[in-house]
Amino acid sequence: MKKRVFLTIILLCITICVSAQKKIEITELPKSAQEFLKKHFSHTSIEIAKKDAEHGEKGFEVKLKDGTEVEFLKDGSYREVDGGDNPIPADFIPDAVKAYVAKNYPNEKITHIDYGHKDLDVDLTNNIDLEFTKDGKILKDRKHR
Predict the structure, then answer these.
(1) pLDDT tens profile 110-131
(2) How many angstroms separate the CA atoms of 120 and 132, rounded?
(3) Which of 64, 63, 98, 92 is nearest to 78 (CA)?
């Protein structure tokens, strides 16, 4: 009996995970998301686009051929751009964040930006993790461990 219940729970979890991310065509992304990708990532192509229901919000996740991952909210605005260890374009990064990085880490580039519920998380090429308010005021400046 315990095995059946456990197996049922496992199958339910797998079903939920699979249905939470559904592949979509690029044309199914909101126009603003399509324009964002075209403007800032024209140097690479889209590998896969998915609908994503992370954090209870419906949004979209796009993986690019160069390994960059971009998450969009349902309205098409970007929520997160992750270049892994590679720098990401800085055009869309708030000016206050770019200015802080240029002043305090002039030899480093931004590899990741993530808008959380209350803050903005930024990672640099030297593994520094910065945290800002949404309007660009520094909250934390710390080295990854």
Answers:
(1) 999 999 888 999 999 998 999 9
(2) 5
(3) 92
Rounded to whole angstroms, the Cα distance separating 71 from 24 reads: 14
CA 15 to chain centre: 24
Give the C-alpha separation, 117 to 108, whole Å.
26
Amino acid letter, 5: V
Which pair of tokens denotes residue 68?
């960059």
Which DSSP state fits 64? E
- Pick the closest to residue 71 from 19, 112, 128, 119 (CA basis): 112
CA–CA dist 49, 24 (Å, integer): 6
d(CA 112, CA 2): 44
